[in-house]
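Write out this protein's structure.
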Amino acid sequence: MGKNKGSKSGSDLDREPFTTIDDLAHKAEELASGLRNLGENRHPLDIRRGIKKRKGVSDMTEKDESRTVKAGSKTYFFDLKKTKEGKSFLIITESRFKSEGKERERVSILVFPESAEEFSQAVGEMTKKLN
């Protein structure tokens, strides 16, 4: 807030500080600057929603490292990712409509190399039993 300038008579000492037009103009400039900074991000609304990339995880960019399976109203994503240390892992994500609205729900399973073979065998056995 701006400081009250002027004489220091007894009545001025009792006066509460007040906001001036200059104070508000400064705050408006700060707000505009902050909005410009957000606009420079690829997905500025994700910041408000709290969506951010996990630390230490990077996407693998090669085409073979990702598969998509569409099954009716559900979509499954199979993506290989690497940790910062270079350790690969598999993320299986199911995406589906949460309700009749447009919002989608996503659920993910992470499979690490040490359990990948056992996981694959279990999926294979259960798939055979489906037929």
